[in-house]
Specification:
190 residues, mainly alpha, 8 helices
Length: 190
């Protein structure tokens, strides 16, 4: 168990220090800022037949969670896909192969690493959404449960699904990265 934890820690630290991750974080902060527009804004991130929601915790949480889910489902795959290939290219896979970690344990660690990377992005957008609620508040009290529940029901399942699909794509289509990306793109449009 300790070996899996150390491998997971190393994987997360390596991927969280990459330029792609840092650029994604910067984009996520900017986009999360735009997710919750001020009440007097001339645009809306979610408009249902001309109706806008009330600027309370539940509405701000739903908008933020929905946009985070959309962003992670479209872009998250491309961020976390390639973790196994990177281990092979950098020959870290040879070092890991010399340890007593099984293949299934290695894939599980990569799956958890993907989840941690996407949860980090989701958590940052959540924090920015909370800050934006306080900055752009229209007089309603902040209720943490109402704000967080959409994240648990929307973002968490998408993070798990995207992480699993990235691992499955790398395992079954290992040398065909363009095919992985094209298949995921067209499946995400459905």
């Amino acid at each position: 168990m300790r070996k899996l934890f150390n491998t997971l820690k190393g994987d997360y630290l390596q991927r969280s220090r990459s330029y792609a991750f840092l650029i994604t974080i910067a984009i996520a902060v900017y986009v999360a800022h735009a997710f919750v527009p001020p009440p007097e804004a001339d645009y809306s991130t979610l408009n249902l037949s001309g109706y806008n929601g009330v600027y309370n915790s539940a509405w701000a949480g739903h908008i933020s969670a929905l946009m985070t889910t959309l962003m992670l489902s479209l872009c998250g795959f491309y961020l976390v896909n390639g973790a196994i290939k990177k281990d092979i290219d950098t020959e870290v896979g040879l070092i890991i192969a010399a340890t007593p970690i099984t293949n299934s344990g290695y894939l599980f660690v990569k799956f958890l690493g993907n989840i941690m990377i996407l949860f980090t992005i989701s958590g940052i957008t959540l924090l920015v959404g909370i800050i934006m609620f306080f900055i752009r508040n229209s007089g309603y009290p902040f209720q943490i449960g109402h704000f967080l529940s959409p994240y648990f029901f929307m973002a968490v399942p998408v993070v798990i699904l995207v992480s699993g699909l990235a691992i499955a794509a790398e395992v079954f289509l290992s040398r065909r990265t363009i095919l992985q990306n094209v298949i995921y793109f067209f499946c995400s449009l459905l």
